[in-house]
Amino acid sequence: MKKHKAGFVNIIGNPNVGKSTLMNAFVGEKLSIITSKAQTTRHRILGIVNGDDFQVILSDTPGIIKPAYQLQNSMMDFVKSAFEDADVLLYMVEIGEKALKDEAFFKKIQNSRIPVLLLLNKIDTSEQHILEEQIQHWQVLLPTAEIHPISALENFNVKEVFERILELLPEAPPYYPKDQLTDKPERFFVNETIREKILMHYKKEIPYAVEVETEEFFEDDDIIRIRSIIMVERDTQKGIIIGHKGSALKRVGVEARKDLEKFFSKQVHIELYVKVNKNWRSNSRQLKRFGYNN
Q1: What residue ranges define each of the domains in the chain, with the CATH number in brackets?
Q2: What is the mean pLDDT of each run of 10 residues along the chain (294 residues)?
Q3: Residue 242 phi, psi (nearest 5)
Q4: Structural contact between residues 292 and 75, judged by C-beta atoms closer than 8 angstroms
Q5: What is the DSSP letter of 116?
Q6: Burial (CB count <10 Å: 0-12, 13-18, 19+), residue 166
Q7: DSSP at 151
Q8: Are 212 and 33 in contact (CB under 8 A)?
Q9: What is the distance of C-alpha 212 from the center of its chain?
Q10: Residue 251, φ and ψ in degrees, nearest 5
Q11: CA atoms within 13 A on the CB side of 292
Q12: Distance CA 276, CA 197 (A)
């Protein structure tokens, strides 16, 4: 009989390298929201993949940035915690990228005592000679890392990387129940789905000034009823979120409802409201309320 393997596999990298796409490809579910904007991921999100003789606990962290305000400091704390409990570290880069935006984090990777898989993503957008140059570049910088060219979007080499992860995991019993997909509650995915639609449809500062809080989540046999509040920092932002005669807010609600119905496999009724919560991104009490400060 095969021995059971289990462990934490933490994905880190700069913003927009495709970490969330990879995590969702591994898990087979859309747990992490994906947009083309930087700082889409704000929390550390666990996705759990179970087999008869393994449990892989994947961790998607915020893209590494130099913090400009308190919310971003909290986001980088999630990244720091990913170094502390990892059994395998996935350092994700894309073609043309040279180094992490934070030198201290990069030194931690260079000095890591746990296995590091460097995943060179988006190779479907590159030519062969450029790919070879990139592999040589990273071999010099991280001589102890294993380099795996992948395309998370096209699912190229993703299965092979997952099989390598299984080889590297320690023998251990499962950390979570075998039917559990993530460590986050249902309301978290409601909030993130709404926030994804805001990231997609609003420009400039608006998406970064927004936080979503689900106040009600009632599940019946055939429908889930949801009431969520979109928090902004200024009155002008509230007007932009709502739009002319409520049209912009309605679009967010319709698109979020469609995604949530797929996620929960059930009919969803969602009500959205917009409130001003001044300077919440720099307020420790508010950040703690939204789950950013431990």
Answers
A1: 5-168 (3.40.50.300), 186-289 (3.30.300.20)
A2: 86 78 80 52 74 87 64 65 82 80 78 90 85 88 91 89 94 87 81 87 82 91 93 92 92 93 90 92 83 66
A3: -70, -45
A4: yes
A5: E
A6: middle
A7: B
A8: no
A9: 16
A10: -60, -45
A11: 22
A12: 19
